[in-house]
Amino acid sequence: MSTKRILKVNELLKKELGQLLLKKVEFPRDVLVTITKVNTLPNLREAIVSISSLPDSKSKMVQKILSYRIYDLQQEINKKLKMRPVPKIIFREEDKVGQAARIEELLQKINEK
Questions:
Q1: Cα–Cα distances in Å, from 113 out to 32, 91, 104, 107, 110?
Q2: pLDDT at 53 over 90
Q3: N or C: which end of the chain has fewer CB within 10 A?
């Protein structure tokens, strides 16, 4: 499979899922959810969608909401995309955001000293 096609599928999924999360999924008011990246397997069977949430303490709740709504989101994606096969969506928590926040915190402490 062409890597150019995979990159296009990744961008398309990121855009469409972003819009669906904004319109169809209700998160608590104090939570910000972002799709950081999408990695589609070369055979187009699965797409791993990395999600970050702020505050980081709410990430488990966000994962629970997304896992509850995955069927509806997958059905919407299946209708919207004009391609076959449509990748199966798998949500994963982005761990680099938490690491970046920890590094930022440590840098702040160093600067204060």
A1: 32, 40, 15, 10, 5
A2: no
A3: C
Strand partners, 54: 32
CB 89 within 8 A of CB 77: yes
Q: Per-residue pLDDT tens for 60-70?
A: 888 899 999 99
What residues does each domain of the chain span?
3-112
Nearest one of 53, 113, 45, 36 to 85, comparing CA atoms: 45
Q: Establish how many alpha carbons lie within 13 A of residue 3's alpha carbon, considering only the half-sphere containing its beta carbon.
A: 0
The span from the CA of 23 to the CA of 33, in Å, is 13
Asked whether 40 and 82 are in contact (CB, 8 A), the reply is no
Asked if residue 112 has pLDDT above 90, the reply is: no
Which of these CATH numbers, 3.30.300.20, 3.40.50.720, 3.10.350.10, 3.60.15.10, describes 3-112? 3.30.300.20
